[in-house]
What does this fold into?
Amino acid sequence: MIDPSWIVGLGVILFGIGLLGTFYHKNAIVVLMCIELMLNSANLNFVAGAMYYGDVNGWVFTAIAIAIAAAEVAIGLAILLSMYSTQQTISLEDANILRN
Amino acid sequence: MNLDILTIITLVPIFTGLILIILPQLLPKETADNLKLITRNISMGVALAIFAISTMIFIGTIGSVDWTDILHGEYVLKNEQFSLISSIGVQWKVGADALSFPMIWLTSLLIPISMLVEWDAKKGHIFHPLILIMEGALLGVFVSLDLFIFYVFWELTLIPMFLLILLWGGEDRKYAAMKFFIYTFTASVFMLIGILVMYFHTTPIPGIGSMTGHHFDLVQMSLQDNLIPNEGLRHFVWILLLIGFATKMPSVPVHTWLPDAHVQAPTAGSMLLAGVMLKMGAYGFLRIAVTIFPESTIIFMPLLVFLGMASLVYGAWVCMGQTNLKRMVAYSSVSHMGLIFLGIATMQPLGIAGALFMMFAHGVISPLLFAVAGAFKHHYHTLEIGSMRGIAHHSPYLSGHMMLGWMASLGLPLMAGFVAEVAILIAFWMSFGWLVMLPALTLIITATYYLTSMQRTIFESDDPHQGILPASLNGDEPRDVTWNENTGMFILGIFTIIFGIFPFIFWDMMSVWSTGFMSDIMISAMENTDAWSPSIDWILEVFK
Amino acid sequence: MGEVKHEYPLLYPLIPILLLAPILKLLGWESVDAAFLIVTIPLLIFPTILIIGQIYNKNPIWKNKWKEGGILALGALTVSLTIALWILFDYLYGNSSFSNQSVDTWFEWITFDFLQSNYVISQESRIIGIGVWIDQVTLMILFVATFLCFLICWFSMGYMNTDPINEDRNHRFYAEFVLFSMGMFGMVLADSFLWLFIFWEIMGLCSYLLIGFYYWKVSAAYAAKKAFLTTRIGDVFLMIGLFILYDIYGSLDFAVIFDDPSTGVSGALVDSNKLFWALLLLFVGAVGKSAQFPLHVWLPDAMEGPTPVSALIHAATMVNAGLYLVARMVPFVDIHYQGVPGLENLGIIIAFIGGITAFMAALIAFVQNDIKKVLAYSTMSQLAYIFTGLGVALWFYNTDHHHAAMIAFGASMFHLFNHAMAKGMLFMASGSVIHEVHHAHDHISEGNHNHNFDPQDMRNMGGLAAKMPITATAMMFGSMSIIGVPLIGGFWSKEGIIAETWKAAIEYEPIMFVPAILILATAGMTGFYMSRMWLMTFAGEPKNDVVNHVHETTPWIREPLLILTAITAISGFGLALFDIIHYLSFDIDNLKMKGLVYTLEHAFLPSDINTRIIGWTTITLSFIIGPIIAARVHGGKLQEGEKAIPTISWLVSLSGKFGSQDVDNISKSQFSEALQNRLYFDDFYEYLISKTVIPFANFTAWFDRIIIDGIIKQVESKSVSGSLEVRKITTGSAKDYILMAVVGMISIFILIWGVS
Amino acid sequence: MNSLSDISLELLLPEAMMIVGILAMIIIPNLGDAKIRIPLTNTSVPVFFGGTRFAQVNNPFIPSVVAMITFTASFFMSLIMLEAETNGNIGEVMEINQFTNLFSLIFTSALLITSIATFYRMPPHKNPEIPKNTDSESSTGTKIKILMNNRRQVDFYILLMMVGLGMCLMSKSTHLFLLFVCLELASLSSYVLVGFYKESDIGGEAGTKYFIVGSVASAVGIYGMSLLYLWNGNLQIDSLTSSWATMESLDPFAGIGIGLMLVAFGFKVGAAPFHLATPDAYSGASSPIAGLLATASKAMGFVAIMKILLIITSSEEGIETYWMVAIALMSVITMTWGNFAALSSENPKRMLAYSSVAHAGYMLAAIAAIGSGLGDIDSNILIVTAVIFHLTILILFKFGAFLVLTILENEGLSHNMDGLKGLAKRDPVIAVSMFIFMLSLAGIPPLSGFLSKLLMINGIVNVSAGTGSLSSATILTWITSVNIIFWLALSIVINSAVSLFYYLRIGLIMFFEEPVIEEPPAKSIYLRIIIIICATFTILLGIGPLSEYLLEIANEAAQSLL
It folds into this structure.
């Protein structure tokens, strides 16, 4: 059995990577992936909590969170696509008609 | 609910005005056009009716009030208790006393006159109803005894005035209107904070304020001993209130909205602005800040003296440097309103009564000044002093009114302003001794700028049969005032003289009130603070 | 020679007014009860004339029958005059007692309470009411004022209505005229210092309006402003003086104050220092109003007004207001009757100001060529005499030399009377001269108006004695009265003033030598410049062709001149016989007919050797030396074939007998230049104002616009530019948004951990 | 364990209606003559689903009508529940009380208005034509647009109802995870709605930015929630509350968790510095959606914030909460930033977005005042009342302003001030309404915006004004000793004054500039009625019995929250 704290530690690392990635990368797909990383780090925490507390809820939260992440990606991709169809870019830096 | 008379005179103009503006939008075009034609007549009718009512109240026909019997702290013509937002303790509470009634009467007098002066205003179907709304808002400020309602009306006055400046103003009207609105609004939100702090120190009265346990009732607040126990907070609140009121008055250094607003405003707007709106500041200051926090007033008396003195002296000097007639008159308002602070700061019944009378007298005189300035703008299309000479030849009536107004404003005896000036200055001497030299010598400056402006406009054409006309006239034949302007100015001039010769008409009630005010409120406060002594040394000491 | 077209029928409507006083008496009125009519009738007539005149302007009936309001004005003044006479007779011969003043409170103007220094509000409300105060001085000045106003109004109908430049404007003149008269009457009758001040200011206003009657004239508008502002400076000090008085006595009513001037409000003993300042400030007001040094600059300029205005305001009535005010100070200093001791300096200051002004004005009058300017400076000078006399009187009162004080005071008041009558007439006479010269000039130039021709310049006149006999006679008697020719008018009073001043200087207070010497010198100078004026105008050969066309034909002008000539000539002597000096100084107990011989002896051969020397020195200087020098310079016979009427021909021919002297060198000297420029006072004030007041006002306006309003504008513009900066943070890049959010997140952590 | 029968589902009627609506929306347009042949027989049984659509259900108006009916029904249901003061629990995860009832009302009314506005913004067309080759380019474009609009009616309204469902459920949830899921449901749908007009340049971009930033915020929030789970082992709000209350010093998990969740909700309410995507989203989205975001979505964020901050992490009276300084500072920055950015904004939608940021700042300031722990429970309730009241009336004047922009948007004029120029000449009623909205936003009495602002300042002053030094008599010592919360009140009023500038500017532009196009805008009759209703209520709720009524409801809601 892995100690839950290791899982949490991994989660922290993943979250950090994800968070850094969100504002480091300009490609929207990569950012989307980073967001997934962050969500997954949350999932790891839920898992760790479930293990630590012996609470079944944690597992359920994880499952639902995965579903949310999936929905998010689906929607995200759709939106990115629509932006790409009009602006021919998915760079978050270049898409800046709306500003100031 | 039985509507009482003060409620009626407050709400009727507001709703009439609103209806007169809205109704033509809803009616079919034909009917609407017909309605628009008589809008000004209806407005004038309502305004005159309200003037009649307030005069009848004054005489005693309505309400059978003997005004000289009204002591301080007593309100007449009160309504039945009616709660507007009971959970936070807002009531519709109106009443009048000798502090507010002259202002009410003055408002009801000035409204028909300002309508008359601009009888032929463009878009009259909006103009006159707007003035009616203005009347309601102004009356609301003076009649309300609930701070929430007071504040609501206080801000409500801004909107019609804002629109008046915007829709009928001069070339730079947008800037002026925005400045006017934002400036005074900014000041009054400080006041709002002060009001709220006061609100949270009220003790509950049964039946209102179910949610908060507090109320906005001004009368109860003033009756409550030591409303804000924390002295530092009390002073702070007083300062917040002062910011709001001093800006409205306006006092140096927060006066610069006034000249801009005046120069751009239409004549009627200027008349109401100078005649009544400025008095709101002084009225509120006396009614709220001084009445509820007398100790703070005494502690800060040096500040009051300084502000009053600064407004008076500085305002007069600035007047002398003006080349625009209306700007000059506007600054002269600043200067005269400084006397009100001085009157209050004397802490003498005479001085306070003088300040009250100053409010009233200036309310009669300054509309005359602005009516004259407006007529210059109207007929000569310029307000530059010195761009014309010898106008007296072409416009004898205008020159006559100008002469009368100018003389009244510089404090000539037998005109309303003199009574107030003398009363304030006598009291000022009693309290501050030789410091009186400063306001007194300012009277010379006042005379100088008034006379110079007169010399450079209506005199000195160097030709008995022809004035030097301004270039803005483009060679047109100059005209004298129109009948409506003439009548309006005439009425104002007559009242100026009547109240100069028979000041006791309003003076007596003010005097009774200020005596009561002193004995009820200020004296115990003086004893409490023990800071007051009638000498200049004390002021210097505080400034150290 | 044209005939005078009399228009007496126009006056018929006024005849019933003469019955007003008898009718009121029959109705049971006391004369004092009717006193308010003196003020209110003109007050009501003022708007009446103005409004009717504005409406019916150019209407022929209004113009010819009503003289554009002149008749109405005259009617109002007739009412005032009749009632004033009624009051006068009532007091002199009727039931009303001399020693008491009648106070009649009409209504309570303002009432108020007072906070005393021990935090107690005084119980009784203090009242400022309106009432009437009548004593001897009131009676005298009231008579002078009503009488002169009446005559000058009469005169104006000739002078104003026949001048085409005034066409259709005269209603304004008459309206302002009656308003002015009302102010003067009210001031004299007022029973409190406050009301005195109020009417005083009304007069100031009317003076402003009347001086600026020819509003289109740049100089007139300027002069009007100058007059108002200069007097205003005095008035402000006067006002402060009133405040101090109020502080001391708790009232400004004469009745309250004079009841016991040594005790103030609630029985406190009056602090003489405080009272000194109060009275000094009152005196500053008087200085402004009566055109004394250093606030004298307005009076010569004020001659820009129409001549009747000069006669009315600047000679006969308004300028006397200051004297009246100083005269009212007597009870304060009269330590014989509960006055406050320790006010000697006040009298000395007043005497000094008087002496300096007298001398200075006389000096300037030497070189004036404008006939009205000469009279103006003469007015200043004579008023200064009265001030000196009053100052000496106050000093005497305060040092408990009661008898001397009363003589000085009475003499001053008497001089006021004489001077008002004489100077009113002189101005009217000068008006007559100017008017006729002007007409003649118009006549010969036939419309080609020459603007360079000045009808007031004496250098354009000369030899008018034959053309204008009545005027010349009147002017001769007026000048004699002013000079102080023995037995005529001013002699009696001026002699008294000079004698008392010297008495004070010699016997008691050496510092009084300064005003004493000054006024003595002035006496001689008066003789010179008054003679010079008369001679330049009436004697010698005409200096201008215009003179040959002058005729004395204008209606309404002769009668006032004749009446006043008579009064000037005999009233001084007459009243002196009746011991008016003691009457006026409230010394009723010693009042008695002294008899002709006694009076003459008292005047010319007083027992006191000092007084005798002074008296004769004065006579020599003023009557002999001054006029002879003037005659040497300006005198001369009339043109060939011209003959003056006997009353003046002796003078004309006498003037030619002293030879002639050329004064070109003197007149070109630097000193003469300075005098021409009025000793540079006006220039100095002008310079001072243009270097201090105006730049400072402009600076303040600049400061207000740039600094105070500028701060607001800066806030505004900085907000907008700040807004643009803030908006730039929203770059449009989602990366930056996230980065910003992370920054915010970290900040939240820091804050949360920082707190916990 | 509760059985399903114990759950009183009637408590969820508004949500149930939306679910029904969603189902109806899916089913009705798909009704057709499709038949299913019973296997092994030749008998075909009509199943009415699929196949050739019936003419009646092919009507493009149906989705919007269904949506409107649904929202109207939920609206009235919420109203009834509010009136009946319905209370109850659903399991351990939801609680229905006056607070949730009021917020249901807020959400459903906002959605109802959105659906009505969208009816004009994205009008269905009865008989769309198919573009032909002969058509000119512009008419082809128009026809394509009409076709597109018809086609996506269903999508739009389904998403809208999803948003509504998420919001309503979210306000009711007492379990943090459920709360988050519902929030995500609403958020994800709203991301799509923001980028709904994918054919326009800005639609996609706005959607993308809003989505990316929002997702990061959500991810951060969910991570924070997971930390809370690690800390407590239970995400029931009650449980978290009691754990927090017994916590001796700030647990790092709890602290970081709460902090991270604040980021998520801060993004929802548009608090600085998480607000940066807000103006972009608002200006890219259609005006009704922007209105929805500015009102309902913001209300949702505040519900979450209130639940987290005021319930879970609330402190005893007299003890300052950990987050007070953070929120106070955030509020000041938010309102100042919002107002200053709006000051020079040339795009009315961006301006309104910034103004909405500023309003979030005001409300955060009020919440910070509760966090100061200076006030007793009564004054806290008063502050929450103020916030709830403000959120409620925002529907009127904030949404009202966006409705006016909706009208202009159909003319393509909502992206700069041109559309507003001379509006008073073209359509005085709309212009006056807009002016009223602006004044109300600025907080001019007697409009309702004033009352809510007053109540918030009121609350702040109430708790803080008594804190200054009592001992000394001078102002200076008082000023230095008073709790910093007091200065929030001052910053609110100063900001109000600043904001007046740009609100009034809108008025000036509407009344005093020459219009770009002369003819009056489209009639849009129902939209117009809604605008007038909004304006009327903006006035009526400012003073008088109606405001009294709403205040009492808000007070009840606040009481049931705390």
Summary: The first helix of chain A runs from residue 4 to 24. Chain A has one domain: 4-92. The mean pLDDT of chain A is 88. Residues 4-92 of chain A form a domain with the Helix Hairpins fold (CATH 1.10.287.3510).
